[in-house]
Amino acid sequence: MVTQTREGQLVETFVTLADTLVVGYDIVDLLQTLVEKCVPLFEASAAGIILSAGEGELEVVASTNERGRLVEILQLRSGSGPCVECLTTGRAVAVGDIDAVGPKWPRFRAGALEQGFASMIAVPLRLRTTTIGSLNIFWDRLGALGEADIVTVQALADVATIGILQERAIRESDDARQQLQHALNSRVLIEQAKGVLAFTHSANMDEAFALLRDYARRNGIPLVDVAERVVTRTLSL
Asked: Based on the domain organization, do 133 and 196 belong to the same domain?
Protein backbone atom coordinates (compact mmCIF):
# COMPACT_ATOMS: atom_id res chain seq x y z
CA MET A 1 0.00 0.00 0.00
CA VAL A 2 1.42 3.39 -1.04
CA THR A 3 1.28 6.09 1.62
CA GLN A 4 0.43 9.50 0.23
CA THR A 5 2.91 12.24 1.09
CA ARG A 6 1.77 15.42 2.78
CA GLU A 7 2.58 17.34 -0.38
CA GLY A 8 0.38 14.92 -2.29
CA GLN A 9 -2.43 15.43 0.20
CA LEU A 10 -2.14 19.19 -0.20
CA VAL A 11 -2.23 18.99 -4.00
CA GLU A 12 -5.23 16.67 -3.83
CA THR A 13 -6.99 19.09 -1.50
CA PHE A 14 -6.56 22.05 -3.83
CA VAL A 15 -7.58 19.95 -6.85
CA THR A 16 -10.72 18.77 -5.05
CA LEU A 17 -11.65 22.30 -4.07
CA ALA A 18 -10.94 23.59 -7.58
CA ASP A 19 -13.17 20.88 -9.04
CA THR A 20 -15.94 22.04 -6.73
CA LEU A 21 -15.70 25.64 -7.99
CA VAL A 22 -17.92 25.19 -11.02
CA VAL A 23 -21.12 26.86 -12.13
CA GLY A 24 -23.95 25.99 -9.78
CA TYR A 25 -21.68 24.61 -7.06
CA ASP A 26 -23.05 24.11 -3.57
CA ILE A 27 -21.32 26.64 -1.29
CA VAL A 28 -22.18 24.71 1.87
CA ASP A 29 -20.74 21.50 0.41
CA LEU A 30 -17.61 23.39 -0.68
CA LEU A 31 -17.00 24.70 2.84
CA GLN A 32 -17.72 21.28 4.35
CA THR A 33 -15.25 19.67 1.94
CA LEU A 34 -12.63 22.21 2.94
CA VAL A 35 -12.87 21.56 6.67
CA GLU A 36 -12.92 17.80 6.15
CA LYS A 37 -9.72 18.03 4.10
CA CYS A 38 -8.03 20.13 6.79
CA VAL A 39 -8.30 17.41 9.45
CA PRO A 40 -6.02 14.79 7.85
CA LEU A 41 -3.85 17.41 6.17
CA PHE A 42 -2.86 18.98 9.50
CA GLU A 43 -3.40 15.85 11.63
CA ALA A 44 -6.11 17.76 13.47
CA SER A 45 -9.03 16.63 15.61
CA ALA A 46 -11.66 19.01 14.23
CA ALA A 47 -12.12 21.94 11.89
CA GLY A 48 -14.88 24.43 11.21
CA ILE A 49 -15.80 27.68 9.50
CA ILE A 50 -17.56 30.70 10.99
CA LEU A 51 -19.10 33.31 8.67
CA SER A 52 -20.39 36.82 9.20
CA ALA A 53 -23.59 37.93 7.49
CA GLY A 54 -23.02 41.54 8.49
CA GLU A 55 -24.46 43.64 11.30
CA GLY A 56 -22.60 41.53 13.86
CA GLU A 57 -24.31 38.24 12.99
CA LEU A 58 -21.94 35.26 13.14
CA GLU A 59 -22.74 31.60 12.51
CA VAL A 60 -20.95 28.26 12.27
CA VAL A 61 -21.57 27.10 8.68
CA ALA A 62 -19.32 24.03 8.44
CA SER A 63 -17.78 21.64 10.96
CA THR A 64 -16.25 18.19 10.98
CA ASN A 65 -17.81 17.12 14.27
CA GLU A 66 -19.99 18.35 17.11
CA ARG A 67 -17.03 18.82 19.47
CA GLY A 68 -15.51 21.57 17.37
CA ARG A 69 -18.88 23.08 16.53
CA LEU A 70 -19.78 23.40 20.20
CA VAL A 71 -16.53 25.23 21.00
CA GLU A 72 -17.09 27.61 18.09
CA ILE A 73 -20.68 28.31 19.18
CA LEU A 74 -19.51 28.87 22.76
CA GLN A 75 -17.12 31.57 21.55
CA LEU A 76 -19.80 33.28 19.49
CA ARG A 77 -22.22 33.32 22.41
CA SER A 78 -19.66 34.59 24.90
CA GLY A 79 -18.19 37.08 22.45
CA SER A 80 -14.64 36.02 23.24
CA GLY A 81 -12.03 33.47 22.22
CA PRO A 82 -9.49 32.94 19.44
CA CYS A 83 -12.15 32.72 16.72
CA VAL A 84 -13.76 35.99 17.81
CA GLU A 85 -10.38 37.72 18.04
CA CYS A 86 -9.49 36.49 14.55
CA LEU A 87 -12.79 37.81 13.19
CA THR A 88 -12.29 41.14 14.96
CA THR A 89 -8.67 41.77 14.03
CA GLY A 90 -8.49 40.01 10.67
CA ARG A 91 -5.35 38.20 11.82
CA ALA A 92 -4.53 34.57 12.50
CA VAL A 93 -4.76 33.61 16.18
CA ALA A 94 -2.85 30.52 17.31
CA VAL A 95 -3.18 28.94 20.75
CA GLY A 96 -0.50 26.34 21.41
CA ASP A 97 -1.78 25.50 24.89
CA ILE A 98 -5.45 26.18 25.60
CA ASP A 99 -5.00 25.36 29.28
CA ALA A 100 -2.53 28.25 29.59
CA VAL A 101 -4.75 31.06 28.26
CA GLY A 102 -5.63 31.95 31.84
CA PRO A 103 -8.14 34.74 32.46
CA LYS A 104 -8.07 36.05 28.88
CA TRP A 105 -10.75 33.64 27.59
CA PRO A 106 -12.08 31.72 30.62
CA ARG A 107 -15.26 30.39 28.99
CA PHE A 108 -13.42 29.32 25.86
CA ARG A 109 -10.74 27.62 27.95
CA ALA A 110 -13.26 25.68 30.01
CA GLY A 111 -15.38 24.66 27.02
CA ALA A 112 -12.45 23.65 24.83
CA LEU A 113 -10.83 21.58 27.57
CA GLU A 114 -14.16 19.92 28.30
CA GLN A 115 -14.34 18.84 24.66
CA GLY A 116 -10.80 17.45 24.85
CA PHE A 117 -8.97 20.10 22.82
CA ALA A 118 -5.48 21.23 23.77
CA SER A 119 -4.58 23.68 20.97
CA MET A 120 -6.10 25.47 17.98
CA ILE A 121 -5.67 28.11 15.30
CA ALA A 122 -8.14 30.50 13.70
CA VAL A 123 -7.27 32.16 10.38
CA PRO A 124 -9.33 34.88 8.68
CA LEU A 125 -11.44 34.64 5.54
CA ARG A 126 -10.77 38.05 4.03
CA LEU A 127 -12.55 40.06 1.34
CA ARG A 128 -9.97 42.73 0.60
CA THR A 129 -9.73 44.57 3.95
CA THR A 130 -12.92 43.08 5.38
CA THR A 131 -12.93 39.84 7.39
CA ILE A 132 -15.98 37.76 6.46
CA GLY A 133 -15.24 34.68 8.54
CA SER A 134 -12.65 32.36 10.01
CA LEU A 135 -11.30 28.87 9.36
CA ASN A 136 -10.72 27.17 12.71
CA ILE A 137 -8.65 24.03 13.35
CA PHE A 138 -8.46 22.15 16.66
CA TRP A 139 -6.07 19.55 18.07
CA ASP A 140 -6.25 17.19 21.04
CA ARG A 141 -2.52 17.67 21.56
CA LEU A 142 -0.36 20.62 22.57
CA GLY A 143 1.69 22.56 20.06
CA ALA A 144 1.54 25.29 17.45
CA LEU A 145 1.76 25.14 13.66
CA GLY A 146 4.96 26.22 11.98
CA GLU A 147 5.05 29.31 9.80
CA ALA A 148 4.82 27.30 6.58
CA ASP A 149 1.72 25.47 7.82
CA ILE A 150 0.07 28.73 8.84
CA VAL A 151 0.65 30.04 5.33
CA THR A 152 -0.97 26.87 3.97
CA VAL A 153 -4.00 27.23 6.24
CA GLN A 154 -4.38 30.83 5.11
CA ALA A 155 -4.24 29.71 1.47
CA LEU A 156 -7.06 27.24 2.15
CA ALA A 157 -9.04 30.00 3.87
CA ASP A 158 -8.55 32.12 0.76
CA VAL A 159 -10.02 29.30 -1.34
CA ALA A 160 -13.08 29.35 0.91
CA THR A 161 -13.38 33.09 0.40
CA ILE A 162 -13.20 32.66 -3.37
CA GLY A 163 -15.95 30.07 -3.17
CA ILE A 164 -18.19 32.30 -1.10
CA LEU A 165 -17.73 35.14 -3.56
CA GLN A 166 -18.39 32.92 -6.59
CA GLU A 167 -14.92 32.91 -8.06
CA ARG A 168 -14.41 36.58 -7.19
CA ALA A 169 -17.26 37.65 -9.47
CA ILE A 170 -19.01 39.46 -6.64
CA ARG A 171 -17.44 42.87 -6.05
CA GLU A 172 -19.96 44.87 -4.09
CA SER A 173 -20.56 44.44 -0.38
CA ASP A 174 -24.33 44.05 -0.78
CA ASP A 175 -23.81 41.07 -3.09
CA ALA A 176 -21.28 39.58 -0.70
CA ARG A 177 -23.74 39.86 2.19
CA GLN A 178 -26.39 38.09 0.12
CA GLN A 179 -24.04 35.18 -0.53
CA LEU A 180 -23.13 34.96 3.14
CA GLN A 181 -26.79 35.11 4.19
CA HIS A 182 -27.61 32.31 1.75
CA ALA A 183 -24.90 30.15 3.31
CA LEU A 184 -26.20 30.88 6.80
CA ASN A 185 -29.83 30.15 5.86
CA SER A 186 -28.74 26.92 4.21
CA ARG A 187 -26.93 25.83 7.35
CA VAL A 188 -30.04 26.39 9.47
CA LEU A 189 -31.98 24.00 7.23
CA ILE A 190 -29.17 21.46 7.37
CA GLU A 191 -29.04 21.58 11.17
CA GLN A 192 -32.81 21.04 11.29
CA ALA A 193 -32.52 18.09 8.92
CA LYS A 194 -29.74 16.61 11.04
CA GLY A 195 -32.05 16.77 14.03
CA VAL A 196 -34.83 15.02 12.15
CA LEU A 197 -32.53 12.24 10.95
CA ALA A 198 -30.87 11.85 14.33
CA PHE A 199 -34.31 11.29 15.86
CA THR A 200 -35.70 8.98 13.19
CA HIS A 201 -32.53 6.87 12.97
CA SER A 202 -31.52 7.02 16.64
CA ALA A 203 -28.17 8.39 15.46
CA ASN A 204 -25.84 11.13 16.67
CA MET A 205 -25.55 14.42 14.81
CA ASP A 206 -22.36 13.46 12.95
CA GLU A 207 -23.97 10.25 11.67
CA ALA A 208 -27.09 12.16 10.67
CA PHE A 209 -25.06 14.64 8.65
CA ALA A 210 -23.16 11.84 6.91
CA LEU A 211 -26.48 10.26 5.91
CA LEU A 212 -27.75 13.58 4.57
CA ARG A 213 -24.61 14.37 2.62
CA ASP A 214 -24.21 10.88 1.17
CA TYR A 215 -27.73 11.03 -0.25
CA ALA A 216 -27.11 14.46 -1.78
CA ARG A 217 -23.89 13.33 -3.45
CA ARG A 218 -25.24 10.01 -4.71
CA ASN A 219 -28.20 11.72 -6.33
CA GLY A 220 -26.49 14.92 -7.47
CA ILE A 221 -28.82 17.12 -5.43
CA PRO A 222 -27.67 20.26 -3.56
CA LEU A 223 -27.25 19.52 0.13
CA VAL A 224 -29.62 22.29 1.18
CA ASP A 225 -32.36 20.95 -1.14
CA VAL A 226 -32.12 17.51 0.44
CA ALA A 227 -32.21 19.10 3.89
CA GLU A 228 -35.34 21.07 3.04
CA ARG A 229 -37.10 17.94 1.78
CA VAL A 230 -36.17 16.06 4.94
CA VAL A 231 -37.44 18.89 7.15
CA THR A 232 -40.71 19.20 5.22
CA ARG A 233 -41.13 15.40 5.33
CA THR A 234 -41.21 15.08 1.52
CA LEU A 235 -38.17 12.79 1.64
CA SER A 236 -37.43 9.86 3.92
CA LEU A 237 -33.84 8.64 4.24
From this structure: no
